[in-house]
């Protein structure tokens, strides 16, 4: 008995200890305190039972392990029956005697048919569309999602959320694979518009899911009374991919039947929405006093379920799913205030504006699909709630002041908002300022309803890939233009007209600007004429002086220095020329007289400036010294030192080689053959032979044309700097 009591006491402690250990491991991985490659095999496998990251997945494959939790079937999983899935929605309908509006499923045709036509619409609206979705920075994520996503057996909820102590994911934190692939998968199916291989890849993913009846919901939802937003969100994205690309899959009639059955199975897993559905049978609460007052069915997740269910009902032409979708939408609308704000989502601290806008976008997409089959519901009010139109207008009003929603936020839900908490700043403010995160065109279905779509299309604001993949992930302006040729042609006419008007306006503005410039220039000339006339002589003298100084400075730079007595040796004086290496030297084997031999890469500078900037009139010559690639050598014989420059390589061969050969014949060679230009840096002042040879070379070079003079002089003046560089590297 005592032994039994001992185990009853110790086992909970052991479970808690293990749970703490696992949570710490996951937190350390997300915050990069530990790297995947640092984990043992057991630790790696343990982490992959709870958390899927790109880093741990890649390490798992690298080690050739087989312990991905997400690919294993869940024990105790079951598919809800239609009766159980929709039990509470039907009770809601019965309680409030809700009449489902008439609709006709036969009115709805496929939204997207031709891949080519669809792609053309995307590119017509945004010429940079392909470039944006093929950004190289996405490639790692795309490769990962392509390898991982198709084998997912069930959709896990919020694997990495809050592990770094934030409401979402801090910069530098690793987010889990489901977060990466909720937009990564979007990029894959958008890339499929351009690439048949990617089309096949998406088809293979979908076929795998259909054949295996996956991905399923996370059964922890039923165990822990949580929510399955991630499941709803991902399923919705998969359905969008099917809508967009199915025409390229070439499915048989039997395959379409299998796909329809798969969709229905996934739809049944959407319900009940939360708390096992107990509260779905009533209207949404009017006040949020504490967290338990919030129902998932009344927030963005609720309307996303309704949208997903409706999409499945229309695709499969199943009236039951359409009816239930409408009831889910109807109940969601009971949670909208008269001003259009969502009662549940508007309480969510610094993320309230984000969630409220997402909810409105999901609802806008729902009504896009409803309008395909039935009478418009944009003016529906449930239990004195605001209408869908009110909800959209409220969300659009937040764009100008996201903090407007703070009157509804719950103080407790600001606790994990980090830097946003102090000033009660909405996260959406930063998103919109830095990324223009919320394009207005995301509300295309509402804009269609309000006959405002043309204006928004003429100012199309999907400006980067995130505007296509984030939020709802549906780009229904594309579908609308694709299926409304008359509207598209009229829009095209207006857009062409706008472009022409803008071009004319631009040309007129440029013409006016040029006229103003000429006018001002003439006025300035007229204003300065008298002044220039009065000061002409003074300016002339000043210019002459400045020119003289410029020429003097340049000549000091490019002309050889005179020898001077210093101890018993002759030196070239310090000349302010510096050699700046841009690449490491290539060391050569030393030959006769060579102390150091190397090919050097870099540039010559004077007073920390490029030579061509010292004298712009000679820039056509001096630019050769901005990107030197020179074979050089420090030459020594007793007390004589010199630097040799191999001038038989471009670009100096065309200037100096033939001249040098002729001069060496007259003056004699020093250390090296005629393909080398040798400049003495140090010698005994009594060594008349060497000194006379150098004077001879200098004299003859300075009788050559200006280009050769300058190049010879610069190379000569660089000798000290080159020698210093070679001897010290």
* CATH top level class name of the largest domain: Mainly Alpha
Q: And the CATH topology of the largest domain?
A: Glycosyltransferase
Class derived from helix and strand content: alpha+beta
Domain module count: 3
Mean pLDDT: 87
Largest sheet: 8 strands, antiparallel
Molecular shape: elongated
What portion of residues belong to β-strands? 5-15%
Per CATH, the superfamily of the largest domain is Chondroitin AC/alginate lyase
**Alpha-carbon distance between the termini?**
82 Å
Tally of helical runs? 31
Low-confidence stretches: 1-18, 560-574
Radius of gyration: 38 Å
DSSP summary, beta strand count: 8
Short description:
This protein has 31 helices and 8 strands. α6 (115-125) crosses α23 (476-483), α10 packs across α12 (229-245) and α14 (300-316) packs parallel to α16.
Give an overview in words:
The structure is a single chain. The chain is of the alpha+beta class. It is 53% helix and 8% strand. It contains 31 helices and 8 strands. The chain has helices at residues 2-30, 41-47, 54-62, 82-85, 87-96, 115-125, 129-133, 139-148, 177-191, 196-212, 220-224, 229-245, 253-268, 300-316, 319-333, 352-373, 388-398, 419-423, 427-435, 444-449, 453-458, 466-469, 476-483, 485-534, 536-558, 611-614, 619-622, 653-667, 688-701, 706-717, 719-727, and strands at 564-566, 569-571, 577-587, 594-606, 609-610, 628-637, 640-646, 676-684. The protein is elongated and about 120 Å long.
């Amino acid at each position: 008995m005592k032994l039994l009591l001992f185990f009853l006491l110790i086992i909970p402690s052991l479970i808690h200890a293990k749970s703490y250990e696992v949570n710490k491991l996951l937190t350390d991985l997300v915050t990069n305190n530990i790297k995947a490659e640092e984990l043992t095999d057991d630790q790696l496998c343990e982490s992959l039972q709870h958390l899927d990251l790109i880093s741990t997945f890649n390490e798992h494959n690298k080690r050739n392990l087989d312990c991905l939790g997400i690919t294993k079937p869940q024990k105790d999983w079951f598919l809800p029956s239609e009766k159980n899935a929709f039990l509470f929605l039907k009770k809601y309908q019965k309680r409030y005697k809700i009449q489902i509006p008439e609709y006709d499923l036969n009115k709805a045709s496929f939204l997207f048919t031709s891949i080519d036509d669809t792609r053309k619409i995307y590119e017509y609206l945004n010429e940079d569309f392909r470039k944006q979705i093929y950004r190289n920075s996405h490639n790692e994520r795309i490769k990962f999602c392509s390898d991982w996503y198709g084998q997912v057996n069930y959709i896990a909820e919020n694997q990495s959320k809050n592990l770094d102590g934030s409401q979402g994911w801090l910069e530098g934190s690793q987010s889990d694979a489901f977060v990466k692939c909720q937009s990564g998968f979007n990029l894959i199916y958008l890339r499929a518009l351009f690439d048949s291989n990617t089309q096949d890849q998406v088809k293979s993913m979908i076929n795998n899911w259909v054949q295996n009846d996956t991905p399923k919901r996370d059964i922890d939802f039923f165990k822990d009374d949580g929510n399955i937003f991630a499941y709803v969100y991902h399923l919705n994205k998969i359905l969008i991919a099917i809508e967009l690309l199915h025409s390229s899959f070439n499915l048989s009639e039997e395959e379409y039947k299998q796909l329809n059955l798969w969709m229905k199975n996934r739809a049944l897993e959407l319900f009940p929405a939360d708390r096992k559905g107990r509260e779905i049978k009533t209207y949404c609460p009017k006040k949020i006093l504490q967290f338990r007052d919030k129902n998932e069915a009344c927030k963005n997740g609720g309307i996303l379920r309704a949208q997903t269910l409706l999409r499945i009902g229309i695709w499969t032409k199943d009236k039951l799913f359409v009816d239930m979708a409408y009831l889910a939408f109807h109940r969601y609308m009971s949670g909208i205030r008269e001003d259009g704000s969502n009662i549940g989502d508007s309480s969510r601290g610094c993320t309230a504006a984000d969630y409220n806008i997402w909810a409105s976008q999901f609802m806008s997409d729902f009504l896009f699909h409803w309008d395909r089959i039935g009478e418009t519901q944009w003016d529906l009010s449930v239990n004195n709630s605001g209408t869908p139109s009110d909800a959209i207008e409220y969300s659009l009003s937040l764009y100008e002041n996201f903090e407007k929603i703070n009157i509804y936020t719950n103080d407790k839900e600001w606790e994990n908002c980090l830097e946003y908490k102090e000033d009660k700043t909405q996260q959406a403010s930063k998103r919109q300022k830095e990324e223009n995160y919320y394009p207005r065109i995301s509300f295309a279905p509402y804009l269609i309803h309000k006959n405002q779509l043309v204006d928004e299309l003429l100012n199309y604001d999907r400006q980067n890939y995130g505007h296509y993949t984030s939020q709802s992930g549906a780009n229904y302006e594309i579908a609308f233009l694709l299926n409304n040729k008359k509207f598209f042609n009229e829009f095209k006419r207006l857009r062409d007209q706008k472009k022409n008007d803008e071009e004319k306006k631009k040309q007129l503005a440029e013409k006016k600007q040029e006229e103003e410039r000429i006018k001002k220039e003439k006025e300035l000339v007229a204003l300065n004429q008298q002044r220039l006339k009065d000061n002409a002589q003074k300016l002339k003298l000043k210019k002459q002086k400045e020119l003289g100084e410029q020429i003097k400075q340049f000549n000091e730079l490019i002309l050889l220095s005179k020898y001077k007595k210093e101890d018993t040796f002759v030196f070239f004086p310090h000349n302010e020329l510096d050699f700046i290496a841009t690449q490491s030297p290539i060391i050569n084997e030393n030959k006769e007289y060579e102390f150091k031999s190397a090919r050097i890469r870099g540039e010559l500078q004077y007073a920390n400036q490029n030579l061509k900037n010292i004298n712009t009139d000679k820039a056509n010559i001096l630019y050769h010294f901005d990107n030197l690639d020179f074979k050089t050598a420090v030459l020594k014989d007793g007390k004589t030192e010199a630097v040799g420059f191999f001038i038989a390589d471009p670009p100096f061969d065309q200037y100096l080689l033939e001249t040098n050969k002729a001069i060496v014949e007259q003056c004699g060679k020093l250390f090296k053959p005629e393909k080398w230009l040798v400049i003495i840096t140090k010698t005994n002042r009594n060594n008349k032979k060497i000194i006379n040879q150098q004077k001879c070379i200098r004299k003859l070079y300075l009788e050559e044309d200006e280009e050769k003079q300058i190049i010879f002089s610069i190379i000569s003046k660089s000798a000290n700097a080159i020698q210093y560089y070679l001897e010290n590297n």
